Amino acid sequence: MIRLTRDGVITALLVVAALFVGSLVAERMPDPAAVLDRPFERHAGIGAPVPMRTGTLTVTGIRSGTQVSSYLDIAATQGVWLVADVEWMPTTEAFPLNAHAARVVAADGRRYGGTSEIATGCTRTQAGVTFVCALAFEMAPTALAGAALHVAASSSVDDADDVAVIDLGLDAAGAAALASAAGRVVLAEPHVKEP
After folding, report:
1. What is the pLDDT of residue 170?
2. Residues paired with residue 28 on neighbouring β-strands, in sequence order
């Protein structure tokens, strides 16, 4: 028969407590694969430059309307066109801003973007040269409040790469003002920014 001493009981209780605490800590540790597969988000607001792996992005303003026109096309919507005016400067080599990968993510998780009726985006420009262009997103007006613009450094906002996350600063009043805009937003042809 095993006799338990006071020291033996204390040791057994400490071992059980350590195992319990260890299991709680292990449950709360992130999965290494999940951490490595997530995008590296670079948060900023309108007007703040966001340095990423391939270049620096600045959203200079946002506009809205029920129609949007570029140098090639005109598109109308029953919702709202949200247009983000951007500046893009590649850092080390000529690299285009991938407009097709950009998304506006609503506060409830809805995503807008991808292939569009309107040709938008920045074309390839030399490193150190700032290019001015616009990104257009056809959206539901109810998705504007709290929305953020996600722009990938390369191919996708879901890749394990740099992603600029721009808070558009849209509270309920700002979203209502954008949603009520009924005119046409004219996109200027992408061009090099004057020094």
Report:
1. 95
2. none
Query: In this predicted model, what pLDDT tens digit does every residue of 13-33 receive, in sequence order?
Result: 888 888 888 888 777 776 666
What does pTM read for this prediction?
A: 0.79
Encode pLDDT of 170-186 as tens digits.
999 999 999 999 899 99
